[in-house]
């Protein structure tokens, strides 16, 4: 599904990713852990095609296509979804309108008709219930005045509506209490599917108790320095990252 080879990327003239490789097959959940500043968010942003990141080497192939040539919205239409560490507020634009516009754009690119308002309202209410967000959040401005947990639930709802093929969650657990964490994890687990893959960036092993990954990778200084199964996350929780750095010198 996703093949990242020797990826190198710069932000503001600074080398951040320095030869990073990962292979993700359909249905797999890959967790990415690593110290602050390692390049985890940069990886998510480069995958999603956000502006401000210059790819200086390597390749990203998604569903057999080199996606480095595509703009962010084209990648979204092809099924790449990035959930942000800090979701943005868009006051004045209703959440419902925003969701409908993004879902219809993706549907259009797949040759499908836009939803009618009635259909979409029904669908959005169903999904807001699934993430435990009261329906009146659909009428409010996008993320306007939402708490951290509410923003994450809202984003999860957006993900459910968009039905992406590759979901990238960047520290979706940061700032969540245990109940909100459970809601996010349940939502992700419901979306797990043989044709859908996840890259879950997290600082803490805690989230991985609920979203059990197939693989865990440690990203340090712009590269994957260690990979393993879910037990690697437990080891990291106990031992920190120092031992890996020693192991790799
Ligand atoms: P992580 O998510 O692993 O904590 P990031 O990918 O956010 O790490 O950041 C990696 C490095 O890139 C850090 O040193 C950070 O300061 C730098 N960086 C990220 N974004 C920018 C930016 N827009 N301008 C300058 N430096 C940046
Ligand atoms: Mg960070
Ligand atoms: Mg980050």
Secondary structure tally, helices: 9
What portion of the residues fall into strands of 2 or more residues? 25-35%
Radius of gyration: 18 Å
Largest sheet: 6 strands, mixed
Distance between the termini: 32 Å
Q: Which blocks of ≥5 consecutive residues have pLDDT under 50? A: none
SS elements, strand count: 12
Strand order of the largest sheet: 6-9-10-3-11-12
Average the pLDDT over all residues and give the rounded result.
Answer: 91
Pfam families: ABC_tran
Keywords: ATP-binding, Nucleotide-binding
Protein name: Fe-S cluster assembly ATPase SufC
Family: Belongs to the ABC transporter superfamily. Ycf16 family.
Describe the protein's architecture and organization:
- Keywords: ATP-binding, Nucleotide-binding.
- It comes from Reinekea marina.
- With 249 residues, this protein is of the alpha/beta class.
- Helix 4 crosses helix 5 (148-162) and helix 5 (148-162) packs parallel to helix 6 (178-191).
- Helix content is 38%, strand content 29%.
- A six-stranded mixed beta sheet has the order 6-9-10-3-11-12, sandwiched between helices.
- The longest helix has 15 residues, at 95-109.
- One magnesium ion (MG) binds next to loops.
Structure, briefly:
The protein has 249 residues and is of the alpha/beta class. It is built from nine helices and twelve strands.
List its salient traits.
single chain, 249 residues, alpha/beta, 6-stranded mixed β-sheet, 4-stranded antiparallel β-sheet, 12 strands, binds adenosine-5'-diphosphate, binds magnesium ion
